[in-house]
């Protein structure tokens, strides 16, 4: 099968010593964004590209003998679209496009747009991707050197021993003689004290004393109230509770702020004083039973500056004085004449 014959790039990638994780550790030191942080998106995409370029063994089914190598893709280069990467890893198409272009700018991969013929016709701008073996070898197998260390210097690392030393057990002494050292059985120091202390500590663990809790909650409430806008406090605490028809609260709050700012320019007084003036006006109009006032939306009341309207005067109705008729009469011979 000629289309499975490895290309030169596939052969070179196969000769690289790619061991360990799918993403070699050195990539996190070499592939970075301009801010200096690892380019996670580019690293994940590069690991996927390298997977497709790593050759697959061809073995004899009966003997298990290695017969050769073959590539995983069909063309001379890997053909993938930006959207396919985005769908596979959950990135956006823009993130994939930018990450692949960053890899290209660093000389790690090449991107090629081709026009190919398909059964449905010609397709243009088809993306073909190929890694650069020399750069992959450089970022994979280069040694990360410490500061002020030459590349020719050897690095000596103490090999691990069969015996594991624990410094605080074997090399350090207890600073205080009255402290019970840790034992093989996991215990807390509370458990090593008297039984009464243990029970009290266990029962009261993570329990806040009620007076203290109330004081904390009270403090948090006061802090939140202090941080609230005084205009909002005046609206929520003074004006809104007195409104008869509680509709359009947000519109009413916006109108309240607008009218207060205009009123403050003229008087220089506070939002609390402005709210108290409105409340006094509302109460007087409700008491006077102004026609339709109880159905007036609060936003309309504020936007129309209805507190400036003339107020109705309640007239007291006194009873009509009784009229008395004065009659004159005369008495004659025992008879009364009117």
Summarize the structure.
Helix content is 41%, strand content 11%.
Description of the structure:
The protein has 338 residues and is of the alpha+beta class. The chain contains 13 helices and seven strands. The chain has a three-stranded antiparallel β-sheet. The protein has a two-stranded antiparallel ribbon with strand order 1-2. A hairpin with a 2-residue loop joins strand 4 (109-118) and strand 5. The chain is rod-shaped, with a radius of gyration of 45 Å. The termini are far apart. Mean pLDDT is 75; it is low at 146-156, 166-174, 187-216 and 323-329.
Number of helices: 13
- How confident overall, as mean pLDDT? 75
Task: Name the shape in a single word.
Answer: rod-shaped
* Total strands: 7
| Largest sheet composition | 3 strands, antiparallel
Report the structural category: alpha+beta
Secondary-structure element pattern, one letter each: HHHEEEHHEEHHHHHHHHEE
Helix content: 40-55%
Strand content: 5-15%
Radius of gyration: 45 Å
Keyword list:
338 residues; alpha+beta; three-stranded antiparallel β-sheet; two-stranded antiparallel ribbon; 13 helices; rod-shaped
Blueprint of the fold:
Blueprint: H1 8-14, H2 27-30, H3 40-53, E1 56-59, E2 66-70, E3 78-79, H4 82-89, H5 93-105, E4 109-118, E5 121-131, H6 133-141, H7 167-170, H8 195-203, H9 210-227, H10 230-239, H11 249-267, H12 271-287, H13 298-303, E6 330-332, E7 335-337
Antiparallel strand pairs: 1-2, 3-5, 4-5, 6-7
